[in-house]
Amino acid sequence: MTLFLLSGTALLAIAAVAASGGSRSSQTAPDGGTGQPATAAQAQGRIDELEQQLTQAHDTQSRQIVIGSAIALGVMVVISVGLGWFVAGRVLRPLRVMTAATRRITADSLHERLAIGGPGDEVKDLADTIDDLLGRLEGSFDAQRLFVANASHELRTPLTTMRASLDVALAKPGPVPETTVTLAARMRAELDQVDRLLESLLVLARTQHGEFTDSARLALGQLALTALTGRAKDIAAKGLTVRENRSDGSAWVWGSQTLLRRVADNVVDNAIAHNDPGGWISVAVRAEGDDAGAVSLVVESSGPVLDQRRVADLAQPFRRLGADRTGTGRGSGLGLSIVAAITQGHHGTLDLRARPDGGLRVTITLPRTDGRAPAEAPDTETGVAR
């Protein structure tokens, strides 16, 4: 359109110059002789008058040409803008569709494709290339999840065999050397740690694969209470004070019973394991947003001062913040990463914040179920409405 405008302007300038050039004519006439001075003078006056009229007519015509050309140029500019906008919209529409579809596709929906139709042009080739890339990514993700799940299952067999061997060695008749008993206890503790790690990998693979087979309506506060009750001995052993705030009775969510219970267990375990002796733990359930369309489980704990720039890394697998965050070094580094994966799988968000005076605040926000659903009494062990 810009080139068309420049060429039209140049054409208009050339037309104006050509039109004005014709008015520059000679104003002199040859002398017809001296024999008839009166007649010659009258003829010359008549010629001058005609030339003046011709010049005026030529100037008028030139102005009309310039004005007409300017109007035509303006009309063509408007038409060109309209046509350019229409053609650009038609050409860029598939690109907008591709952009929206690509933004919509995530790691949990790699099975979707752009599926752009139309003639085999460059845009169609680009869409087909992106679809092929999504297919390869989907295969890679599936292979990774399948490998983790299969490897975790296959490793359980030798773990079971090793436990059985320890039991047989300790159950032999006769006195068992103290060193053997100590070694067996240490080996059993390590085997338990490996078993917990494999279980965490299984949960992580299952969550990333979106396998929710036990969905139900759950009381978020009750899940937190169950997690605290099950760890009462650990809390007492460390001398921790628990502050509870579960007054929001509308904090019901819909999701996997097993996985959401694992979320509550992991955040409470994290608050206990990485706390100071004699510290405190705060558990609160609250509504989020003006329309209370979401509810949050907030678990805060005391502890050492953490670097906020590194706290976000705790949601990644096998990420720790040094020895002070691993305690005895027995942590697998998967606790909060499992929480993040399960929360994302339930269309929620996980927010990790370092407290200014030490410790960590974990906020898990999930969509709230319809509060008008039948309010059945929850199971005190699971928090499930039945």
UniProtKB/TrEMBL annotation:
EC number: 2.7.13.3
Entry's localization field: Cell membrane; Membrane
Record's catalysed reaction(s): ATP + protein L-histidine = ADP + protein N-phospho-L-histidine
Matching CDD domains: HAMP, HisKA
TM stretches of this protein: 65-88
Main location: membrane
The keyword Transferase is assigned to this record: yes
A GO molecular-function descriptor: kinase activity
Residues making up the signal peptide according to the UniProt record: 1-18
Domain (Histidine kinase): residue spans on this chain: 150-370
Region (Disordered) residue spans: 22-41
Domain of life: Bacteria
Keywords linked to the UniProt accession: Kinase, Membrane, Phosphoprotein, Signal, Transferase, Transmembrane, Transmembrane helix, Two-component regulatory system
Topological relation to the membrane, as annotated: Multi-pass membrane protein
Annotated InterPro entries: HAMP_dom, HATPase_C_sf, HATPase_dom, His_kinase_dom, HisK_dim/P_dom, HisK_dim/P_sf, Sig_transdc_His_kin-like_C, TCS_sensor_his_kinase
Enzyme class per UniProt: transferase
Residues of the HAMP domain: 89-142
Matches recorded under PANTHER family: SENSOR HISTIDINE KINASE CUSS, SENSOR HISTIDINE KINASE YKOH
Name of this chain's protein: histidine kinase
Species assigned in the record: Streptomyces castrisilvae
